[in-house]
Structure formats: structure tokens, C-alpha cells
Amino acid sequence: MHKHINGRSLALAFTLAALAVSGCDRLGSPAGADGAQGEAAALSGFDGAMTAQNFGQAAQMAAMAQAARPEDPTAHLQRAQAEAAKGDAKASATAFLQALAAELPDAQAALAEPVFDSVRSSQPFRAVKAAMAPETPAKAASAASTTRKRAPETRIRAGNVEIIEGPNGGVVRAGDVVLRDSN
Q: Torsion angle, CA of 152/157/160/162, rounded to 10 degrees?
């Protein structure tokens, strides 16, 4: 059975999850509490977990925020920060790319934060840097040159013998023997 969850219920569930993860045993809230306070509690929980260097807990809280607000670049950035602090460059880069897709403001400053120092030069973060690089005419021309069509090749095959003729010469293969002719 599938139940519909409204925004207030989702905020309450998110707050309860944040309280459970943070170890708080007080579930009461002041009269008139709304979803904004739940989000504030979750944010303070994330900040508290990061300050306490409980990066696994911070990553879990940020993942819940991502699920609740996939359009919010801050939720994705927090996940990227927590994963970077844990040393998981791949998960951090993935979350940072999600933040970029959600239109993260001032992405250059975010990437310069010290929390990314340990992962910034990793292979996964090269994709982040490439996504952030401005499109230049030289870059566009380079991309166009790599997609240029190659001249056609002629292939003839009979049994285990194959003859390939192309603009740069030909190749004859017979079993393990390969002969090249480079015009």
C-alpha cells in the first residue's frame, strides 16, 4: 500500500530522522513549528556532524536532504563536502556535478573550499573541472576536429584472410600474419 506524504509530513519525517541520527531524545517542538524549522534542524545537524568530524553521519544527512530537495544545489554541495571529508572522491565528484546541474551559484568558490583539498586533484574531480570550464572557441574547434569523418575503408574477407584498404595504406591479415602497406 502506497501512502501519499504531504510537505509537512515530509518535513516532520526529515526532522525526526535528523534527531534520531544526532542522538537527541527530545521530540517536542514549540507550538507553530513548521517545515522551515525542520530544515533548519537538519542543516544544524549536518553542520554539527561536520564540526564533530562525523563525516559518515553528515553524508547520510546530506543524502536525505538530496532526496527531499533534489532541485536544491546546497543539498548536493553538502553531500559533496561530506563525501570529500570522508575521502570518497568519486561520491564527492558525483554530488558536486549534481550541484552544478542544480545551478550551484559560485561553483568556483565552492570548489576552492578546503574540504575539497584531498580530492580536488583526483581523477573523478577532473570531470567536475571539465564541466566547470568555460566553452572557448579553441575548445569547440578541438571537439569538432575529433568528430571529423574518416575516409572510407574497403574490407575484403575470405576465411581467415582479410584485406583492408584505406587512405593511409592497406593491411593484409592471414591468421597470425599481418602485412602493412603504408603508401
A: -40
List the single range of 7-21, 62-76, 103-117 with lowest mean pLDDT: 7-21
- In this structure, what are the phi and psi dihedrals at residue 174, rounded to the nearest 5 degrees? -135, 100
**Residues 114-152: tens digit of each pLDDT:** 999 999 999 998 888 888 887 655 555 555 555 555 566
Per the listing, cell 516532520 goes with 12
* Distance (Å, whole) CA 175 – CA 127: 42
Residue 83 · residue 91 · CB < 8 Å: yes
Taking each continuous run of H as one helix and of E as one strand, the counts in the chain are 8, 4
What's the one-letter identity of residue 14?
A: F
Q: What is the spatial distance between Cα 95 and Cα 84, in angstroms, rounded to a whole number?
A: 10
The total of other beta-carbon atoms located within 10 Å of residue 35's CB is: 16
Predicted confidence (pLDDT) per residue in 20-54, tens digit: 444 443 333 343 444 455 555 555 688 999 999 99
The closest alpha carbon to 7, from 33, 30, 34, belongs to 34
Exposure string (b/e) for 149-171, b if CB count within 10 Å is 16 or more?
A: eeeeeeeeeeeeeeeebeeeeeb
pTM above threshold 0.90: no
